[in-house]
Design goal:
Number of helices of chain B: 7
Number of strands of chain A: 0
CATH topology of one domain in chain A: Non-ribosomal Peptide Synthetase Peptidyl Carrier Protein, Chain A
CATH topology of chain B: Ribosomal Protein L22, Chain A
Structural class of chain B: alpha+beta
GO molecular function (chain B): holo-[acyl-carrier-protein] synthase activity; magnesium ion binding
Distance between the termini of chain B: 51 Å
Helix content of chain B: 10-25%
Largest sheet of chain B: 6 strands, mixed
CATH superfamily of chain B: 4'-phosphopantetheinyl transferase domain
CATH architecture of one domain in chain A: Orthogonal Bundle
Strand content of chain A: under 5%
InterPro entries (chain B): 4-PPantetheinyl_Trfase_dom, 4-PPantetheinyl_Trfase_dom_sf, P-Pant_transferase_sf
CATH class of one domain in chain A: Mainly Alpha
CATH architecture of chain B: Alpha-Beta Complex
Strand content of chain B: 25-35%
Strand order of the largest sheet of chain B: 1-15-14-4-8-7
Number of domains of chain B: 1
Organism (chain B): Aegilops tauschii subsp. strangulata (Goatgrass)
GO biological process, one term (chain B): lysine biosynthetic process via aminoadipic acid
EC number (chain B): 2.7.8.7
Number of strands of chain B: 16
Oligomer: heterodimer
CATH class of chain B: Alpha Beta
Shape of chain B: globular
Helix content of chain A: 25-40%
Order of helices and strands of chain B: EEEHEHHHEEEEEHHHEEEEEEE
């Protein structure tokens, strides 16, 4: 049972094209096909922290954290698409979210946090809930660094995911906190925080 | 070099004459970066595509008559598969937008990014008399992330600022335009299903009165549709306010559909907590069914004085076009394709 999306045509968005995953826990897999693409953008460099407001700040979570994690993991850091690292300073609009409710993808303050601050267990549970909600096809990778927007989640999906997480972890998520969630990892970190606050 | 031979069948209203623009001219060259000058060639990005020639073929829409009028332009991504057309749209994007599109790993999402930016830019160009190249628009975000046009300081269109808002579903991307009024728009597929039970979703996110009105509906399909209508209306309000989901949590305001005065909004007691003073009720709503497949909600600011409870707010003047930018525009409001619900 594929979940909520049975009525929708299965879009190729969830198709066999491998998502370039950069999980900090598992060794990052470099998608070979993508690495053959010409690098039209400038070589990767760590972006300088940009002001969150007013005008052109990015709405993506700190992708360079992934760069750091990958280098720590000792893998070849020859990212095919360093675009994410460069994007952070040059975006001027908000992304293609279905419903577009600013529910997430608010400019997240640049975090240079290197480690996954969320427990792996939590991350996995979040991935499961997300996969079920979005009817992600078998074989598509969903991990800590996966962005909800990359999975095509719209605002209704997001609130259902949040509700699912609340039920699973017996927590209550405020709208302000929910809005700051951009990746699976963000959700997991928030959950851990709320769970430990509850038990303390 | 052959340029694109574009078939243009516009059934919108006839073109209106525009007052001549005054340009700052110095030494014979136009310095205003937004104005296309016949003397200066527009830098070409690919051979055969002349941005200037293309955007001049966008027909002028009828002007927005009042702050209560909303024009909506939408396109259906599934119907736009002509790669050369898509490339043409991509040409309109700014470098950062193109980078953002490139960062999308899924092809469909990438196409949606390109289409939605192209739709926005071409629509804005139409409403500035087709004198501004779609590629020239720049945008800024307010502190909550709501995008707005960054008008150049000396541009005369800044006197009557255009406001826009975009909404996507997999099968439809809509852009709403209003003049002098903040606008929010939300579109949702009618057949959209939820994984969670409707009433439990409503209990978690909606207000008690809305939950009650949903609980009264016995047929589950009708209940689901009612939920979606409320959802799009609430979403349109939040987007119009421009303060993000947390600026106006769904539980702080109620939307009533079935009143004799059309759609009304009222704040709940939740909203009397500090931090929600900005929640205002002077907003006009309209809800329509598009092509029998989508619900579309539009919310605009009501700046008129007559806002007493006895006064019935004048209806929002809604005009809707289905568009394939540069190819075909079809006025669909007033036909079966747009059915006003409220």
């Amino acid at each position: 049972m594929a979940g909520a999306r049975t009525d929708r045509p299965v879009s190729p968005l969830r198709g066999p094209r491998r998502r370039y995953s950069r999980c900090a826990i598992t060794p990052p897999r470099i998608n070979v096909a993508r690495s053959l693409l010409p690098l039209s953008s400038t070589p990767p460099h760590p972006p300088s922290p940009s002001p969150v407001a007013p005008s052109r700040s990015s709405c993506s979570p700190p992708p360079f954290a992934c760069c750091l994690m990958a280098s720590i993991a000792g893998s070849a850091v020859s990212f095919a698409k360093p675009v994410k690292a460069i994007n952070t300073n040059s975006l001027s609009f908000s992304g293609p979210r279905r419903g577009n409710a600013f529910l997430r993808l608010q400019p997240v303050p640049m975090r240079f946090a290197v480690c996954c601050s969320a427990k792996q267990d939590t991350v996995e549970k979040v991935c499961e809930i997300v996969k079920k909600q979005l009817a992600v096809p078998e074989g598509t990778e969903v991990c800590g660094t996966t962005k909800f927007s990359d999975l095509g989640a719209d605002s209704l999906d997001t609130v259902e995911i949040v509700m699912g997480l609340e039920e699973e972890f017996q927590i209550s998520v405020e709208e302000t906190s929910a809005q700051a969630i951009a990746t699976v990892e963000d959700a997991a970190t928030l959950i851990d925080k709320l769970v430990s606050a509850k038990s303390s | 070099m052959r340029h694109h031979h574009l078939l243009l069948r516009c059934r919108a209203m006839p073109l209106l004459p525009l007052p001549p623009r005054t340009l700052r001219v110095s030494g014979g060259l136009v310095h205003h970066r937004l104005i296309r000058c016949h003397g200066m060639p527009i830098p070409r990005r690919t051979p055969g595509v002349s941005g200037g020639r293309l955007f001049a073929s966008l027909p002028l829409p009828p002007p927005l008559q009042s702050p209560r009028e909303v024009h909506v332009w939408y396109l259906c991504p599934d119907e736009l598969n002509n790669q050369s057309q898509l490339n043409m749209y991509e040409e309109l994007l700014s470098p950062s937008e193109r980078e953002y599109a490139d960062s999308m790993k899924a092809t469909m999402l990438r196409k949606d990014v390109v289409l939605s930016r192209a739709l926005l830019r071409t629509t804005l160009s139409r409403y500035t008399g087709c004198k501004i190249d779609p590629r020239s628009f720049e945008f800024k975000k307010n502190k909550f992330g709501k995008p707005e046009v960054l008008w150049p300081l000396d541009d005369s269109t800044a006197e009557q600022p255009l406001h826009f808002n975009i909404s996507h579903t997999t099968s439809l991307i809509a852009c709403g335009i209003a003049i002098n009024a903040h606008i929010g728009i939300d579109v949702e597929e009618k057949k959209r299903n939820t994984t969670k039970n409707i009433l439990s979703l409503a209990r978690r996110y909606f207000t008690p009165s809305e939950v009650d009105s949903l609980a009264e509906i016995s047929d589950s399909d009708a209940q689901r549709k009612e939920f979606l209508k409320l959802w799009t209306l609430k979403e349109a309000y939040v987007k119009a306010l421009g303060m993000g989901f947390s600026g106006a949590p769904f539980s702080t305001f109620s939307i009533m559909l079935e009143t004799s005065k059309g759609i009304r909004i009222s704040k709940t007691s939740n909203a009397s907590r500090p931090g929600y003073d900005h929640l205002s009720e002077n907003w006009l709503f309209t809800l329509a069914e598009l092509n029998s497949s989508h619900y579309m909600s539009v919310c605009i600011e009501d700046s008129s004085r007559s806002q007493g409870p006895e006064d019935s707010p004048a209806p929002v003047g809604l005009k809707v076009w289905k568009t394939v930018p540069f190819v075909e525009d079809t006025l669909v409001s007033g036909t079966e394709a747009v059915k006003l619900i409220a």
